[in-house]
Design brief:
Elements lengths: L2 H4 L7 H7 L6 H11 L7 E5 L7 H8 L4 E5 L3 H14 L4 E4 L13 E7 L8 H11 E12 L5 H13 L3 H14 L3 H10 L4 E13 L2 H6 L1 H13 L6 H19 L2 E13 L1
Parallel strand pairs: 1-2, 1-4, 2-3, 4-5
Antiparallel strand pairs: 5-7, 6-7
Helix pairs in contact: 2-5, 7-12
Bound molecules: S-adenosylmethionine (SAM).
């Protein structure tokens, strides 16, 4: 009997249930565009850079099927351990996971038919080195697809953040916030230049956006992705002894605006690069 005909979903198995419902909604819109862009062919060698807890790695392996081999790399060991649990639980055999940084890829030259990265390449310390590594390991004619959110991400929020810092005379912190945004979300012109320098010249781009809607600022700051991913970065650039004051003012301002408008709507513009090597 075919393997897939034998499989059952055991809804009482805690491990199975723990790995099923896991993709953050934050990653999904970027990922959807990525999946609409990649070319699927048999027997591909694929690399997912900065695969985190396994997206798009595991989904891509499933969409390609067993003739392809999909590698995921990420230095985050706890996350890659989780991927291994998912692979075991789902019985997936065409995925390999390696703990390493994208600046030093442990693969031979011209190895991959497809390289993807969902919100990953913008999060590495040295984008130029990563692009030159991608150039080295991709086959001539291979496809390189990656997504990231653009500098205007949540500008409705960041504009108020900067206003509040200005009112509190924290001018140095406004510059630090702008540097933080530049660090994580490169303008398209800057990415285009870095790609050209890495000899990626056949470049197509799709821009898109989605909204994150909240009842108000209080809901926003208490939302777990904000607490997990955004707040620690903001706290790093603000004076510890003024955090309470800053966030009080910010939350009050956001709540006032949300009351007037009926909600707090934040826009996430993003881009998907589709490159032929
Ligand atoms: C926003 S997460 C994206 C995860 C996943 N691709 C997704 O779509 O949900 C960024 C990832 O970049 C990884 N990362 C950070 N520095 C890296 C580096 N130098 N090389 C490779 N990955 C890195 C982090 O560990 C994290 O998993």
């Amino acid at each position: 009997m075919k393997n897939y005909l034998k499989s059952k979903f055991d809804a009482s198995n805690k491990t199975v249930v723990s790995v099923v419902d896991e993709l953050p909604l934050w990653s999904a819109p970027f990922g959807q565009t990525l999946f609409e862009t990649v070319n699927l062919r048999p027997s591909m060698k694929v690399l997912d850079i900065a695969c985190g807890t396994g997206f798009p790695l595991i989904e891509l392996a499933g969409r390609l099927g067993s003739s392809s081999l999909v590698y995921g790399i990420d230095p985050w060991k706890t996350a890659t351990d989780r991927i291994k649990l998912k692979l075991k639980t789902y019985g997936i055999r065409n995925v390999k996971v390696i703990n390493c940084i994208a600046e030093k890829l442990p693969f031979k030259n011209n190895y991959f038919d497809l390289i993807v990265s969902n919100n990953g390449i913008n999060n590495v310390p040295d984008i130029k080195s990563v692009l030159s590594q991608c150039r080295r390991v991709i086959k001539p004619g291979g496809q390189f697809v990656f997504t990231f959110n653009l500098p205007k991400t949540m500008s409705e929020f960041y504009d108020i953040f900067k206003d509040v810092l200005g009112e509190l005379r924290l001018i140095k912190e406004i510059h630090k916030l702008e540097e933080h945004i530049y660090d994580k979300r490169k303008p398209v012109s800057v990415m285009d230049k870095m790609l050209a320098e890495a000899d990626f010249l056949n470049v197509k781009k799709v821009r898109n956006s989605f909204s994150m809607r909240y009842l108000n600022g209080t809901a926003f700051f208490n939302h777990y992705p904000v607490k997990l991913h955004f707040l620690p970065e903001w706290k790093k650039i603000l004076p510890g002894n003024r955090l309470e004051e800053i966030f009080n003012n910010l939350e009050n301002r956001l709540n006032k605006i949300s009351e007037e408008k009926g909600e707090l709507q934040l826009t996430i513009p993003y881009i998907c690069y589709n490159i032929k090597a």
